[in-house]
Amino acid sequence: MSILDKKTNVAKMLQEYPQTAAVLKKYRLGCIGCHGIKHETIERGAIAHGIDLNALLHDLNAAL
Q: Residue 9 and residue 13: Cα distance in Å, rounded?
């Protein structure tokens, strides 16, 4: 069962699961320093950066 899904807010994810920051770094997502993450979902971030959403979700959930 996955805890995080495509509609998960990135800021809330990082607050609740700080270990996911390492996954974002792996995918070269600079979300941690971005002010837009308050309104960003995992899906929107993946699309904006051309990242495979399913792979990202898999790795984020594996980090939990």
A: 6
Query: Any idea what the CATH number is for the domain that residue 32 is in?
Result: 1.10.3910.10
Q: Which residues contact 25 (CB under 8 A, 6 or more apart)?
A: 32
Domain that holds residue 28: 10-63
The number of folded domains in the chain is 1
pTM of the model: 0.89
- pLDDT tens-digit series, residues 15-61: 999 999 999 999 988 766 667 778 899 999 999 899 999 999 999 99
